[in-house]
Design goal:
The structure is a single chain. The protein is mainly beta and 466 residues long. The chain is built from 4 helices and 30 strands. The strands form 8 sheets. A 5-stranded antiparallel β-sheet has the order 5-2-1-19-20. Strands 4-3-6-7 form a 4-stranded antiparallel β-sheet. Strands 11-10-13-14 form a 4-stranded antiparallel β-sheet, with no helix packed on it. Strand 1 and strand 2 form a beta hairpin. The longest helix is centred in the N-terminal third of the chain and has 15 residues.
Length: 466
């Protein structure tokens, strides 16, 4: 992906003259606006289109240095200043199509100016960037190849992409190859002033494809001409090709040594119905221009590409810190991901070896979530005068057992649930009966979880609402 420079930025420190009434023969005291900070404030801004309005979320490198941020449209000259709220968010309102110039000022607690900036924004361009990021994060569910035993053909669903048709010029696809020799028809989009998306009654949502189709290959062309990489979509995934690997001492030695300072980059993960999302967390995000990565044992480096967020000091887009993982790479075991960081001067650091273990992440998330005192292990629903008990089966792939008992904590019973071994997706409810009938003479249920690694929780009691 390219890194276009869409915001022209000028850093200006305000300088004032003598104040009226200053006694003669004495040096004039500098106004607060002229006090130069030890270093210019590193400030990022994320343009956020929402319901036809354009909001700005400001992200300073040092939050403690900033007491107030304000901004305004440069034209007309008498445009009012908009002060960012406690979340450092400012609402520019419903802007007309075309480029708008914005002035930004940041102040410290003493009222001194610690940064003044100018940038230009086009609401249509920001809307396009917003949708590109959403589609990049949901790249694993652009289409769905559906099949049922009673069907004579498979169905290739394009519903997710059609909902974002305003930002697409073309959807290219092919079957059982990546020749991309087919085009999925998109109905004409409305004039894209706000690009709110949606599906119209005349939209086509699917194609019938031969029953023998193994996979579909899909590529997007955005309305600005940018073309994505082609991605494959299966009804049933083949065995993962990027299976977990063991550490390689030569590359592991290049990882940063343990030190009191934070590592330059660490890895966080998130799993949803759109698959796994990797989040590269930077210790100093304002200093990084590009994030490059490769999955072991690959040798080629790739860039995560630009993010909608703008670095106001450089005027360029910050790097995208997220990456949707191809389900073909998800397998039991540890997967090494090498990462390099490039700063705004072009200096490269790394590679840093990060590790992704999907099964371990599933277990970690389940323990963290269910370990909270405000998250119940048993919930209740009332139906026809009966109390029904439900367990958190959305985490069943992290469980070995669910032990329970009514009215006591002897935990002599086990709740049966279907095993879930698909690491690429969160568990789905497949149980014929996913609940218990609570006896009318029982005041509570006692529950205990046994996680897949053998860890056993303390029993907890849960009572239905009276």
């Amino acid at each position: 992906m390219r890194t276009p420079t869409l915001a022209a930025v000028v850093l200006v420190l305000l300088i004032g003259g003598p104040r009226p009434g200053q006694p003669a023969g004495r040096p004039a005291a500098k106004p607060k606006a002229a006090i130069r900070a030890a270093e210019p404030l590193s400030l990022n801004v994320l343009p956020w289109p929402s319901e036809g309005r354009l909001q700005l979320y400001f992200r300073p490198a040092s939050r403690e240095r900033v007491a107030k941020i304000r901004c305004r449209l440069a034209e007309p000259a008498d445009s009012p200043w908009i002060v960012a709220d406690s979340d450092l968010r400012a609402d520019l309102g419903d802007l007309s199509a075309g480029r708008h110039h914005v002035e930004v000022e940041a102040f410290d607690a003493a009222g001194a100016t610690v940064g003044a900036y100018k940038l230009s924004l086009d609401p249509q361009d920001e809307e396009l960037r917003f949708h590109k990021k959403i589609l990049a994060q949901t790249a694993n569910v652009w289409v769905e190849l559906g099949d049922r035993a009673e069907w004579k053909e498979k169905t290739l669903y394009f519903t997710h992409l059609v909902s974002d048709k305003e930002v697409l010029r073309e959807i290219r696809y092919s079957l059982d190859s990546c020749a991309l020799d087919r085009r999925f028809p998109l109905s004409p989009a409305t004039a894209c002033g706000t690009c709110r998306g949606g599906i119209d009654s005349d939209d086509k949502l699917y194609e019938k494809v031969p029953k023998a189709t193994v996979f579909a290959c899909v590529q997007l062309v955005y309305r600005d001409g940018e073309t994505t990489e082609a991605r494959r979509f299966y009804h049933e995934l083949p065995p993962a090709s990027g299976a977990g690997v063991t550490p390689e001492p030569a590359l592991a030695a290049m990882s940063p040594a343990a030190s009191p300072s934070p590592a330059p980059v660490t890895l966080a993960t998130q799993r949803s119905n759109a698959g796994w999302l990797l989040i590269f967390k930077l210790a100093k995000p304002h200093t990084v221009r590009d994030i490059r990565y490769r999955f072991a044992p690959d040798t080629d480096w790739r860039s995560t590409g630009p993010d909608p967020e703008i670095n106001l000091v450089t005027g360029e887009r910050s790097p995208n810190p997220t990456l949707a993982v191809d389900p073909l790479r998800i397998a039991p075991g540890r997967l090494r991901i090498d990462v390099k960081l490039v700063d705004w001067k072009g200096v490269e650091s790394g590679p840093y070896a990060l590790w992704f273990d999907p099964a371990a992440e599933v277990l970690r998330e389940a323990k963290a979530r269910l370990g909270r005192s405000d998250v119940p292990w048993a919930s209740f629903s009332h139906h026809n005068g009966r109390a029904l008990v439900f367990f958190p089966l959305s985490y069943k792939d992290a469980f070995r057992e669910i032990r329970y008992s009514f009215g006591t904590c002897d935990l002599g019973q086990r709740f049966p649930f279907d095993p879930w071994t698909d690491l690429t997706q969160p568990p789905k409810m497949t149980e014929k009966k996913g609940y218990l009938d609570m006896p009318s003479d029982s005041a509570f249920i006692c529950a205990q979880l046994v996680f897949s690694d053998g860890e056993v929780t303390e029993p907890r009691r849960f009572e239905p609402d009276k």
